[in-house]
Amino acid sequence: MxxxxxxxxxxxxxxxxxALKGVNFSVNRxxxxxxxxxDGAGKTTMFRLLTTLLxxxxxxxxxxxxxxxxxxxxxRSRVGYMPGxxxxxxxxxxxxxxxxxxxxxxxxxxxxxxxxxxIYAQIEPFKHRRAGKLSGGMKxxxxxxxxxxxxxxxxxxxxxxxxxxxxxxxxxxxxxxxxKEENITIVVSTPYxxxxxxxxxxxxxxxxxxxxxxxxxxxADDFNDALLEVKGENLYKLMLEIRxxxxxxxxxxxxxxxxxxxxETPDTEGFKKELSExxxxxxxxxxxxxxxxxxYMKLADE
Amino acid sequence: MKKxxxxxxxxxxxxxxxxxxxxxxxxxxMVQIILFGFAISNDVKNVRVAYxxxxxxxxxxxxxxxxxxxxxxxxxxxxxxxxxxxxxxxSGKADIVAYFDRDFSKIGKKGSTPTVNLIIDACDPNMAxxxxxxxxxxxxxxxxxxxxxxxxxxxxxxxxxxxxSMESSYNxxxxxxxxxxxxxxxxxxxxxxxxxxxxxxxxxxLVSPSRPMGIIFAKMVPYFTISCLNLATILVLSVFVLKLPxxxxxxxxxxxxxLYIALALAFGLLISTIMKxxxxxxxxxxxxLLMPTMLLSGMIYPVENMPAILQWISxxxxxxxxxxxxxxxxxxxxxxAAIVKEIAVxxxxxxxxxxxxxxxxxxxxx
Lengths: 302, 366
Prior knowledge:
- The structure holds two protein chains of two kinds.
- Chain A has helices at residues 43-50, 72-78, 94-104, 113-123, 136-148, 166-181, 193-196, 216-221, 235-244, 268-277, 292-301, and strands at 3-14, 17-28, 32-36, 58-63, 66-67, 79-82, 154-157, 185-190, 201-206, 209-214, 227-231, 248-254, 257-262, 284-288.
- By secondary structure, chain A is α/β, with parallel strands linked by helices.
- Chain A starts with a strand and ends with a helix.
- Chain B has 13 helices and four strands.
- The radius of gyration of chain B is 28 Å and the shape is elongated.
- Chain B is of the alpha/beta class.
- Chain B has helices at 2-17, 19-39, 58-69, 82-90, 125-144, 169-199, 201-206, 212-240, 250-274, 278-296, 308-314, 318-331, 340-360; strands spanning 47-52, 73-79, 96-100, 116-120.
- Chain B folds into two domains: 22-40 and 167-360, no CATH class; 47-144, abc type-2 transporter like domain (abc type-2 transporter like fold, 3-Layer(aba) Sandwich), CATH 3.40.1710.
């Protein structure tokens, strides 16, 4: 399989922070690749290196076989980039934005209409509306249309779904899967672990280092400890109590529940009894399958 | 070419859709030229004159009537006692009191030197000097004129060249042109470029095949166009509203002003390559361009009166050269050959500033 992106031992300082430390990964042509990590993990820095906006302090980055330092101009004409913030002209209408970006890449909307049709059709009824007046989901569709209007071979999307409602997020990932069929290589970053399983492969990143690269399924399967989901009336107090227990290896808050692992095979009933004796009420404890987030927490902890 | 056109169209959209930008670009120059032309003037007008004449006679009556008939002065009344003189000035009823000495009755008689004391409210020394100069002229005129006086006295007469009525707009218009064109062009271009950085669109533009030169050129075209419109407005206003003649070559003046506008745009570009936020770009344009232009260009204070060190500093202020040249061409009517030096200075600055900002313009984010 041909390699579309190759990141070779890249380090990058941003001010006083080492944003990336010896990062290695490569993305295959036509792959939907996810960079998964919390805010401040170095995802945006990675995107800026990929888009030639930054130059690595150490190591090399190639996109479509071109070096981001030497051949930056070649890269700039073949990537589509959607930065983390909404970066279109808010005072131009939907149509004006799209037309402008088409002309920036010396093309027209009509020329590549097939590619953006599915996405643009959804916002076309609002084409005379100013971009600043669009909803989050619509802004995102417009930004994606603008990034696609020149038929890029590589699409780089930095946190495209942040600040977007769940329905639009779901639709967005459906759109990415369609684009993949056009043989466009897509790199997408997200802080949402539930989105990670929509990618072909993911790289878990934290504090500027890659923790693990694999398929979402493998990453979840790699989690070999038994896992209990614990719910209770006072989640915070419950977490403090559980963390004090000798047999407990880890305990993390996952929204409305806690995920707990043990250093030995857990005795669910005995665990529940022990907690009840500590005065915790409304307890439900169920063994569950680990997800990507559990793997991430475990890897980040090590 | 198509790409460039769509860039330029986009810039015009930005300008036309932002009411504040429009107001600053179009409104400010008009307001300033009219303000400085009319309201803020140090012209002597409607100076109120009272007189004190213990020995009132025909001559005094004629002279007072003559003063009153003058455009600059209004005779507001007569003081009856010496205390009245002080009172009239303090209460602000009069700006000048003319005190006709008792000798005045012997006017025209041999061996007598009739005197008039002019008592002037000199809170504003510049105004006081000007008032006294003009009033002295009026009085001297009276004695020269056979219809009124004896014509016996030899009166020194000053002739004011180029600005015979000492209109301050003659001085202000070139200054305002220099100020408005510099500040508005530089500020608006720098803000519009920095805005793209701040909003993040610059990031997207950089990751595209468009060349930085192209992006910048497209930014400048609309502001250059609007500045030329402003230049036209200022010239029309000064000719038809402020009645300021254009003595020299109009084409030459316009071409020279366009060179200056280009320099102002280059300054804006330079500021935008250094600053990261719109607010800082605006502050730097204000402090770095507005203040020095107002204070050191010779617009308000003559450069010749400054201490040597400030004169040196003023040499790097483009408005100084612009104002000097505009005065020469517009007011004095000198041929373009007379401002070759100024053209060379402004042109040289344009090359340096453009070079610096192109060198500074980053193809990447750092």
